Amino acid sequence: MTTYQMPQVAAGQEEFTAETILARAKAAAPLLRQRSEEIARTRRLPQDAVDLVRDTGVFRIGMPKEWGGPELTFSQQTEVIEALSYGDAAAGWCAMIGMDTWIYAGYLDEPVVKELLANPDAITAGLIFPVGRADRVPGGYRVTGRWPFGSGVTHADWVVGGCVVHSDGVPEPGAGGAPVNWRLMLVRREDVETVDTWHTHGLAGSGSMDYEVTDLFVPEEWTFDYTTPRGTGPLSAPDAFLGNVPGVPLGVARAALDHVRELAAERVERATGTPWSDSYRVQTVIGEAEMRLAAARYAVYGTLDELWDRLASGIEPTPDQQVSSALARVNAFRTARSIVSRLSDLVGTASIYRTSPLDRWLRDLHTMCQHILAQEQIIQSAGAHLLGGTPQAPFPLGLKG
User: Fold this and answer.
1) Which domains are seen in the chain, by residue range?
2) What whole-number distance in Å separates Cα of residue 356 and Cα of residue 375?
3) Rounded distance, CA 300 to CA 318, Å?
4) Predicted confidence (pLDDT) per residue in 388-398, tens digit
5) How far is it, in rounded angstroms, from Cα 112 to Cα 122?
């Protein structure tokens, strides 16, 4: 059995840079691949797998340099998530969710940030949409609610939950004419109860179960909304935490394509005895898959680089610029699922067994494509914004309302 070691850095050298974090993620991928069946079976990341992912530095990739972090760009973040997802989809998904700690910290006051900095590799889980209720009380809020889709909540250090703020039992209106005051609550993991609801056919290992609190006091300083970032620049944008999301489907599709290319070296067409390497049918499927994945990948990275540069420069976007990265993200999910489905058709009956990674990858991608960030309403919202209409989902486009 091959033994994989994390790359070591020289004494005194900066340990966590974009280059070293990516190298560590690539080194971790084969180890995660070996654990994929176990991760899916147990429906969560085992603690040693969490430690392996944490040691890559992925959970600090959104930490600004002023706080001592590496401050990776959106494209650099996506490369890291893509590398981890190449090893295991659930691990990549949980890494993508868990690194939001430092995005959220950009909305909090300095004393809270200093407390968070005690653990630069802290993991955060939770649903940001306002499913819970927060009743305003002196010094903070009394929070009650149950949130679904808590990816990584089984191993998180911190948990967020979106709430509608109430005063005197009545929902408060939000800023700028919003119908409700949508506010996020950040609490310690031990303050929430998990509800084991995550029994799915795909992405099972993400542990995306429900979690709940009842009448939990949350101090004002541990709450925030997305209209009031403390800083400026790309990491303070409303959709900063969405930049690296497409790394997961891209990594899974790459893993599936490499897997089938390896299979092709030993396979022959049953009817003719033609090696797969010389089969027109197989060559066409592989060529088309590479073409489509490359196009989707370049769209993701190209639009992310443009988004980062625009936000760093403070340039007001055109409508086309505003929607470009969101559309590339949705396309990455859909293209990845289509590619793996086609590869499964190519491999045939061997792909339907649970022992085949193609079976797991296809189920994982189908589940990912049901996520709100990959659904049709994002496309509708992009079209509406381009036409001057009303987006149904403005937030995933980076629009505040």
Assistant:
1) 18-105 (1.10.540.10), 124-224 (2.40.110.10), 246-397 (1.20.140.10)
2) 27
3) 18
4) 999 998 988 88
5) 14
